[in-house]
Amino acid sequence: MSNQTVGWLGQSFYVRNRFIDWYDIQGVYIFTGLNAQNQWEPYYVGETQSFKDRFADHEVWDKAVRLGATHVHERVTATEADRMALESALIRAYQPPLNTQLKARAY
Q: What's the order of all strands across the beta sheet hosting 27-34?
């Protein structure tokens, strides 16, 4: 696995190919791709109890690829509360186009 990391909201995430052999461990993930400015663009943020189980057949991956996703950024979390809080913060901060929950409402 790659040891390249990237920061999201001050947290380090590993940059992974979507099709690696994932571990059965909990964490937060971001479907990403590089934009024209060579910066990571988030398309979807999620959380899981098991990366291995979640990525077996993720329902959003094909949509993310159509938008430009090429990689998954992942961070292992210690607790469910950590996982949920980080997912929520990332969605609110970056407003990924494929996340519909937790987005800031436009009034």
A: 5-8, 11-17, 71-76, 27-34, 40-48
Output helix, strand, coil percentages for the chain, rounded to the nearest 5. 25, 30, 45
Asked whether residue 101 carries a pLDDT value surpassing 90, the answer given is no
Hey, CA dihedral for 90, 92, 94, 99, is it positive or negative?
Answer: positive
Percent of the chain with pLDDT over 90: 81
Report if residue 48 sits inside a domain: yes
Residue 12 lies in a domain: yes
pLDDT at 19: 83
- What's the token pair of residue 95? 């407003």
Calculate the alpha carbon distances from 81 to 14, 28, 38, 57, 102 in Å: 20, 11, 33, 25, 16
Residue 58, domain CATH? 3.40.1440.10
Residues 17-22 have a mean pLDDT of 87
Q: pLDDT at position 57, please?
A: 83
> Amino acid identity of 58?
H
